[in-house]
Amino acid sequence: MRLFVALLVWLTFAASAAAAPSALDQALKAGAAPTSTGPQRTERIEAELTPMSAWAAPGSTAVVAVRQQIQPGWHTYWRNPGDSGGPTTLDWSLPDGVSAGDIVWPLPHRQRLQSLMNYGYEGEVFLPVPIEIPADARPGQTLRLTAEALFMVCSDQMCVPDELTLSLDLRVQDGAAPLDPRWGQKIQTLIQTAPRPAGIEARAAFADGRLTLTATGGPLAGAAPKWAYFFPFEGGIIDHAAVQTGQRGPQGLTLDIAPGRGLTANGLTPPLAGVLSTDLGAWEISADQGAPLTGASGAGALGDGEASLGAATTPVAFLQAALFALLGGLVLNLMPCVFPILAMKAASLSRSAHEPREARRDGLAFLAGVLATFLILAGALLALRAGGQALGWGFQLQSPGVVATLSLLMLAVALNLSGVFHIGGGLQGAGSGPLSRLPGAAGAFFTGVLAVVVAAPCTAPFMAFALGAALLMPWPMALAVFLMLGLGLALPYVLVSLSPRLLSRLPKPGPWMETLRNLLAFPMYGAALWLAWVYGRQTADALALLFGAGLMLALALWLYGRSQLAHGRSRGAIVAAALALMLALGLGVMAARAAPATDDGAVGSTHLASQPWSEAAVQAALAEGRPVLVNFTADWCVTCKINEGAALSSARTAEAMRQTNALYLVGDWTRRDDAITAELQRHGRSGVPLYLLYTPGKSEPRILPQLLTEGTVVDALKDAAR
User: Fold this and answer.
1) pTM score > 0.90 for this model?
2) Other C-beta atoms lying within 10 Å of the C-beta of residue 320
3) Residue 197 near residue 250 (C-beta atoms within 8 A)
4) Distance, CA of 508 to CA of 437 (rounded, Å)
5) Which of 483, 481, 487 is CA-nearest to residue 464?
6) What is the DSSP letter of 689?
7) What is the mean pLDDT of residues 126-135?
8) Element (H, E) at 308
């Protein structure tokens, strides 16, 4: 028992270690990693200079970002802070020939405070800055970049100007540089998604005390945004706290904006520049003064985004999300990724079928395990998102360390069910051998924990709406929705365990239970192998470490089982088991900290010819008149793989794609990808799978069912081609 407890403690450690891989190890592998003076801190904010790439080439443009980690309850500001505050400013000290550009500002959040509206950031924030490297920079040279950063850090009660000196030693080296292993991917994603010009034509008119902004063309042509909001670059032009109303049209949109004091006193001085943010995307625009553009109204009213967010927090929306979460949890019991845990629940029910008191205890303990784990996962997800992380349901399986840990845990459970070792119960009957079962309420609780952990790769029908809505709600409402999902998952088992009539119909305990228990080990072996395959897809040549850890773990548990058969008299077996377990732990930790696989442009394993998803690829295909089928998937998503095997790999589907000249794009979410996370959220989803079918001439894609059939895909493609 102590050995198994030690195993569980290590599994928890390995998961946490995987969440924070050693940046030093990665830097040493890169060979030319930049070095920073490290984070500088005040009571309110932590900041540091961090590069996007591992080095800078002579004559290139490097990107260096100011990373802010803002304490909860505090915020910093955008280039236009709104009604109060001030933007972050950088005063650079650079080597000769090196120059710094302007900050690439991410899209800000609106921060309402009573009658004021500010624009800023909370949690983790990156402010990228392009750095021009002179052509005569020598390879091997180190460039010291220093910035005096002034942050206006505010809470609801006060504002404090925090000034920090940030430095970074950037190595010069020939050749294309890989992304910095710590923050490079985040910085690159931010630059790719930051607002920028997109060919949108805009006009502004100020008359009768109202400012009218029209925008047409570019990504707005033929689109149908649900809401829009204009962030001006200059303060005082608009009333930031006022609601922005408007209309959409066939070619764009119109916004009616309350003017600010600067506009009413001085009139409109074109151009009016800023960021136009919509549910379809955000772009920089520059509006010349003039009459409203045609095609920018007449197709329905627009919200300003705040109202859309508020709608998710109404009692009706909350009750609807909670009901869908309950239904989603019930359906989740039928999804393939939960089957191994159903096997464990079936074994537990059969054992206690004719002991109603024990059955009720186990049912309630299983419910407690499910709800507690949902609460922990949901709390972690909401906390990380509040800190600026772009995460969704199943986020823990995007960590190779967590996947490796779960694979070893599934192996241990399978060996337990196979009778290699046992926990509790001792020997039951002469010659019957040890029964591999978890003891009492603790075992039922742990089974509930496992059920939630392995259910993460599945997104059942009804879950998508419920979880998407929950992530827009205040945290108490969001946690309640997640708990309803857990209640739905546990409800069938709990109802059976509390019903004496149903329990009485189950067979009486007997020798058949041992056979059933051994048989149910094989789904657990399958789960361990599947997770090992996912781990291999996520990492670079580290699968051997996981296999070695699994082999040593199996040896340790077999030796431990031998010592149990000898009633503790085999000290040699116990010592050997401990040594094997230590070796398994060492290999497991190395596997958990393995480097992620490099992104070589490959997409998830599918049978149709595909290209990686990007918004630019979608728009380019639509401009050519081609339908676009987008598959957001992940290797750890069992539902995704079943759909790809059943509906996206047949000859009929391939022929329909060819006949309609459709483009197939795959968004691979196996490893974390903030751009895909944002796209999922835009369509009200918090996880995969998500299937979108874009039709030329239509602004919004058709969302296909989460459980696909060949006929569904073929018919949808034919409809898109009409």
Assistant:
1) no
2) 16
3) no
4) 17
5) 481
6) -
7) 94
8) helix 306-311
